[in-house]
Write a structure and sequence with these properties.
The chain has seven helices and ten strands. The chain is of the alpha+beta class. It has a single domain, classed as Sandwich (Jelly Rolls), CATH 2.60.120. Strands 1, 2, 3, 4, 7, 9 and 10 form a seven-stranded antiparallel beta sheet that branches. It has a three-stranded antiparallel beta sheet with strand order 6-5-8, with no helix packed on it. Helix 2 packs parallel to helix 3. The radius of gyration is 19 Å and the shape is globular.
Length: 308
């Protein structure tokens, strides 16, 4: 699937684009879901053997099981990110040509899988000890300044249908034209007072679809008020010739028309590079701004009416 001229224009003009039915929920996303179902099951069984979990919750569906486990053992919902689990199914998905076809429409035929890639398992707000809020921010703000001058495309891909109740993302259309905004109190959160006019727009998306973001567009998440986990991936892509803003973590080339021999197809090499990087970069500041104090687990700060 490639984007139409109208879709490309919308992305560059508004800073985002929702594209439905890019992926097959079973063929493309099924192996990733199965990998995390296995991970959750292993955690549940280990906790049950240790006497920390009263039951396995095997009768619960994927989107609810981890939430039920976390009501008893909150820590069970942590440490699920891509670079920590490093599952072969995830590596295969990062090489999914359907995703690359969409991304190529925006950045061209030379594509690097950016090292800033995440699996999100966002807990319901009812689980106050582990539920978190994604406040207004720009993806460019979590990278070093070396990456400021070129496009990095984010593909936000749900593993479950993401409604407003489940904590869908919201965006301020056109906000990428403001450029990079300094954080409000350290960390990555952007002060709503400096956001230009624009009404926040919720972006619910079904399994099989995706949201494409410009690296400067302002976005946040609606609180997850459901009783399920909001499972999603946010993956980033760029021209391999440009700096990533995360020079100490491994990206890899997934498509190259000019040098097809540089495309990485070796899972074990990908896994081992992450193991090495994590071991040898402890203490390296990964972001440009210092971390902020813990923020309240509530709705993202509202954009003042005067700026809308």
């Amino acid at each position: 699937m490639r984007l139409s001229e109208g879709q490309i224009e919308h992305y560059h003009d508004q800073g985002y684009l929702v594209v439905e039915d890019v992926l097959d929920p079973q063929e493309d996303l099924g192996p990733v879901v199965a990998a995390y179902e296995e991970e959750v099951d292993q955690r549940a069984r280990a906790l049950h053997r240790e006497g920390k979990l009263s039951r396995l919750y095997e009768d619960e569906p994927f989107e609810r099981r981890l939430a039920r486990i976390a009501t008893e053992v909150p820590a069970a919902a942590g440490g699920l990110d891509i670079y920590l689990i490093r599952h072969p199914a995830m590596f295969r998905f990062l090489r999914n040509t359907k995703v690359h076809d969409v991304v190529e429409s925006l950045i061209g035929p030379e594509i690097l899988c950016h090292p800033c890639q995440h699996l999100r398992a966002v807990a319901p707000t009812a689980l106050a000890s582990i539920s978190r809020t994604t406040d207004w921010h720009q993806d460019a703000g979590v990278l070093w300044p070396e990456a400021d001058d070129h496009l990095i495309v984010t593909t936000w891909i749900p593993l479950v249908d993401v409604t407003q109740e489940r904590g869908c993302l919201q965006v301020i259309p056109g906000s990428h034209r403001q450029g990079l905004l300094a954080p409000a109190e350290g960390g990555d959160r952007v002060d709503p007072a400096v956001i230009a006019a624009g009404e926040p727009l919720p972006l619910p998306v079904r399994v099989g679809g995706m949201i494409l973001f410009h690296n400067y567009v302002l976005h946040a998440a609606v609180p997850n008020t459901s009783d399920t986990i909001r499972w999603s991936m946010d993956l980033r892509w760029q021209d391999p010739a440009k700096p990533t803003g995360r020079p100490f973590y491994p990206g890899f080339i997934v498509r190259s028309r000019s040098r097809p021999d540089t495309v990485q197809a070796d899972y074990e090499q990908w896994r081992d590079r992450w193991v090495f990087a994590l071991e040898h970069t402890r203490g390296v500041p990964s972001r440009r701004w210092p971390a902020s104090p813990a923020t309240p687990k509530s709705a993202p700060a509202a954009v003042p009416a005067a700026t809308r």
